[in-house]
Specification:
Helices cover 77% and strands 1% of the residues. It is mainly α and 329 residues long. The chain has a single domain (3-328), classed as ABC transporter involved in vitamin B12 uptake, BtuC (Orthogonal Bundle). A hairpin with a 2-residue loop joins strand 1 and strand 2. The chain starts with a helix and ends with a helix.
Amino acid sequence: MGNSSLTRAVIGVFAVTALLFLFSGVISGALLSAPSLRTVLLLGSFVIIASFGQGIVILLGGLDLSIGSVITLGGVLLGAWVPETNQNITWAIPAILLIGAALGMFNGFGVAVLGIPAFIMTLATGIIVESVILEFTQGAPAANSAPDLIAAFSNNYWLGIPILVWCIIPFILAAALVQDLSSFGRAIHSLGANAKAARIAGLRSNWLTISCYAISGFCAALCGCVLLGFVGAPTLSMGDPYTIDSVAAVVVGGSSILGGSGSFLGTVGGALFLGVLSNDMTALGMSAGWRTLIQGAIIISALILFGALQRGGGGGQFKLLLASLRAKN
């Protein structure tokens, strides 16, 4: 996809998000208030973190269906290892992030070296991680509250904005630099667009693939740690929504789920879109069934819209996303 088409997709997703946010005022004036905006930014922040890793993998032409499980693992381990007083936090968080990266490398090794389809490899890894979590917790995660330091990211404010949102700004800048402007990012674009040509050109495809999945695992573990501060205590399902949300944010943000084309700024727009949508549905008091139905319908509509901006149609992306949803459910 050309740069002009990608730019239109990025601008489009931010425009649609802004319109949706303004439309929220029709539902309730409170949805246009500062507390509502803070909620949207917080919800979007977690998706942004998870979506960077997912976006790198999708840009490569892959898919990571283990993200939700690794997010849950990160939150469960942090809750088990670090009490509310922050004791052990200096070694626990680095250890959790390394575990996430290692799981990602395991996915990448299976895809790049063993030739296992990404869809199958990451789905299997997710199932394994969920089983390990269940065994580790015996079905009941440690009831410890989130460490004070982690909870402060979501609950403390600076200039009226959660500290986590301020921290997300440099994260976005660094992630955009890596994905869109660095030599590493350009190599991923090339490999995702035409793997055979990229290998002929001398790109180390195995190393790139393993690195991308390692980044995805690292980001998922990081998301699990900061998410714990928001939810207050670990649960066995805390990461479940983020597998599909991360895919949706990437594709709604204008990236091709077939690989080779995408912008992280578009992914940020997609994550904010999902945050506004979730906030609106919560305000309406919708049941889980209606929330899923409406969210799916709007996401599919966005896929078709931005697919049209990219290639004159979103059919390929739509079919692959449907397959992902069926496998996860």
